[in-house]
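Q: Could you write out the predicted structure for this multi-component system? I'm mainly interested in how the pieces pack against one another.
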Amino acid sequence: MRRNSTSGWPGLQSAADTKSVTGDHPAILKLVTLLGMPRTDDDTWDLASSVGATATMVAAGRARATKAGLIEDPFAEPLVRAVGIDFFTRWAAGELNSAEVDIPDHLWGMQPITDILAVRTRYIDGFVFDAAAAGIRQAVILASGLDARGYRLSWPTGMTVFEIDQPQVLEFKAATLAALGAEPTVELRAVPIDLRHDWPAALSATGFDAGRPTAWIAEGLFAFLPPEAQDRLLDNITALSAAGSRLMVEIFWNSPQAQQIMQAATQKWYEHGLDVELDNLGYPGRRNDVAAHLDQRGWSTVRTLASQLLADAGLPVPPRTDSEVSLADIYYCTAVLGAL
Ligand SMILES: C[S@@+](CC[C@H](N)C(=O)[O-])C[C@H]1O[C@@H](n2cnc3c(N)ncnc32)[C@H](O)[C@@H]1O
């Protein structure tokens, strides 16, 4: 198994070092990959396993987009390096070639992820900037993973940012950034809890004020929630939102065809040394449309397609495939509560 034995940062043990993931023997890894490991209601993870590893993957995408000069996230690469999944470390460091690890002209792979991460990061940074310009002084980043907005953006005075994710994810990010000498650029409060549990109570306990308008961000989250948990989350957000609150949700692929496309891409990565299982982490099946759900609850929504953001940025827009899966199926829903 190929993996860094240490995080590369003095005094820090990598997340990958702390836990054995899907089995060290290649045959076991392959078997687990073929069978898949279904999610359970109370599963937990760190940044080197299960859903947590997807946070490391998208941070590797931000690291590559940073190297390409498309965004500026100086923390992405050191964070990925600290987690210690060797394949993603090499990805973040620019040591892997798309021609080598991606299926040619495939919708999903290292390069498409880098491009999507570039445009989605810029788009959501813009959402944050607009919310702050409108006077909002409270933000909640749901499933924050290795998102370093609390360290890399310039926030207005008086702003408080709450980050919600699994305890091991938040602890590892904070410890790693502290060891790097990085300091938050905002009043940053960690809310370590599973979003399928009573997170509104945990959020309130850390000082969240439901009486003030809030900017909510749900980036790269919804595919990992069961359909009913997605609706419940949106209803909880609505209940906690004062008039004028804003919301940004990424709506990601969910169809069986899209799952197959992603699994084909990850299969190639396993062949190139990825040793963490990334298949079967989502909850496929019918779910309510986010924008329609919000429209019925007093929000005014706007849909922006990932394909549009790529085209606007002059980045390649992969064509629709035979199976009718397209990047146009991924969209960003922004919403304002109570706006006409
Ligand atoms: C693809 S990553 C996205 C991370 C971050 N938003 C970003 O874009 O860099 C998915 C994140 O969702 C978090 N997540 C998924 N389901 C969750 C749950 N039920 N409770 C808390 N966090 C969850 C994972 O821990 C992980 O950090």
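A: Regarding packing and overall arrangement: The two ends are 56 Å apart (CA to CA).
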